[in-house]
Amino acid sequence: MDEEDPSCPLKRCGVFIPQATERSAKPERTVVVCGIPDGLLSEDIMADILMINFQKRKHNGGDVENIDYPISTKGVAYITFEDKQVAENVLRKGKLILEDKRLHKVFFLKVLPYGGNVFTCVTCILNLSSFEERCNLEDLVQELEGNLPSLSFGPLHTTGQITVQGPFPAIKILQNKLVLILKHSFLERPFKRKERVPDNRSRMKPRNHGLPFKSGAGAAENPSEEGLTIAPDTDIYYYMKKFKNKLYQKSLEKCGVTSYESVDGEVTTIYLCNSSAKSDCCQLELAKNIVEGLLTELHCFLRKGKLFQKGLTRTEKQNHEQACEVVNNQLPNVLIIPYQTHIDIIGSSSDIYEFAQQVNKMVGSFQKELWR
C-alpha cells in the first residue's frame, strides 16, 4: 500500500512501516537512481518522466513495475522492473540521460544496485571555492566524475558549490581525494583546531532522547595543533554517540586524542586532535582507524524508517510522540530523532520494523479511545 495514498490508514495516523522490508523481497529487480532534479516539476510529473525514460530500449530499460518517488532523500528514487534481466541491463549501463520536453535541459542520472540499506545513497553539498585560484573548477568536477563514476554531480554554481549524490563510501573517497588535492597543491595546510561548530539541525529535538552532542573536553585548548578528519553519515554518527559513546571516548583517551564534530546535513565531519604534546601522528592514525572500524560496523547493520506526522493535529502528534517513547522503552536499541514533519527511527532492520508496528498499533488504540 502506498503511504502517499490518501486512503491509506498508515498515512492518516502518521505511521510508516519501512518500505525496505517490502523492497527486500525483490532487490534483484530494484535499482537506486540518483541525480534527479529536485523542485523543477511536480512530483507526479517527475515520476512520469522517470517511468518513460526507464522504459526506453536505448537505456536498456523495459517494463517498470513500480517507481518509489519521492523518498526522504531528495533527488533519489527506487525503480522496480518487472523483469530481473532489465534491472541488470540498466545497472550495467550505469548512467542514464533523463530527457523530456517538459525539462529545460537533459540531466545525467546514476543507477546503483539496491542493497536494502538506507544509507545506500546520501546527498552532500561541496564548496570548491578553495580550489578556484589554482585550477578550473569545471575541469576539476569533470576529473572527479571520471574517477568516481558511482557519484552524481549536479550543476556547478558560480559560488563554487555543487551538489553530489551517491553511495556513502564513494562520498568518503571523494572527500579524501579533495583533501589530498589541497595538500599537494599547498592550497591549505592540515586543519587547525578551532572552536566547535554547533549542530545546525535546527529542526531536531535531541534533548528528549539523550543524544550526547557535546564533544570531548579540551577540544579548543591548543589552536595550533593539527589533526585528522573522518566523515561518517550523520545518522550513523548520532547512533554511535548514543549507544557507543563510552567505547568511542575510551578509544580516543587511550590514544591521547580528543575530538569535535561539525554536522552538515547528511554528512558529519569528526575532527581528531592530539590532546597533549606527547601525542604523535601515529596515535592519531590509530584513533582514526579505531573510529572508522566502529562506524563501518554500524554502517553494515543499521537501517532507517520514518514515522510521518505531516497533516496530523497537535493531539495526534502528541499521541504519536507518546507512543514512540513507550515503544522505545521496549526497544531501547532504536534511536528516534524527531523533526517537524516526521520522526526518523534508526536501528537494526528487525527492530525498526517492530518499532513501527507497535507504534502503529498504539496510535490506533489512542484513536479508538478518542471515539468512545
What do you see in this structure?
The protein has helices at 9-12, 20-23, 43-54, 84-93, 137-147, 168-185, 234-243, 245-254, 281-301, 314-330, 349-371, and strands at residues 30-34, 64-68, 76-81, 95-98, 107-113, 122-127, 152-153, 161-166, 227-230, 257-264, 267-274, 303-308, 335-338, 342-347. It is of the alpha+beta class. It has four domains: 25-115, Alpha-Beta Plaits (2-Layer Sandwich), CATH 3.30.70; 122-166, no CATH class; 206-301, Ribosomal Protein S8, Chain: A, domain 1; 303-371, EIF_2_alpha (Alpha-Beta Plaits, 2-Layer Sandwich), CATH 3.30.70. Strands 2-3-1-5-4 form a five-stranded antiparallel β-sheet. The chain has a three-stranded antiparallel β-sheet with strand order 6-8-7. Strand 4 (95-98) and strand 5 form a beta hairpin. The radius of gyration is 22 Å and the shape is globular. The two termini are 28 Å apart.
CATH architecture of the largest domain: 2-Layer Sandwich
Tell me the radius of gyration.
Answer: 22 Å
Structural class call reads: alpha+beta
- The fold-level CATH name of the largest domain is Ribosomal Protein S8, Chain: A, domain 1
Distance between the termini: 28 Å
- Order of strands across the widest beta sheet? 2-3-1-5-4
The outline comes out as globular
Q: Roughly what fraction of the amino acids lie in strands?
A: 15-25%
In total, the number of domains comes to 4
| Unreliable parts | 1-25, 186-225
CATH first level of the largest domain: Alpha Beta
- What percent of the residues sit in helical stretches (DSSP H or I)? 25-40%
Q: What string gives the helices and strands in order? A: HHEHEEHEEEHEEHEHHEEHEHEEH
- Could you tell me the mean pLDDT? 75
Biggest pleated-sheet summary: 5 strands, antiparallel
The total of helices stands at: 11
Total DSSP E strands: 14
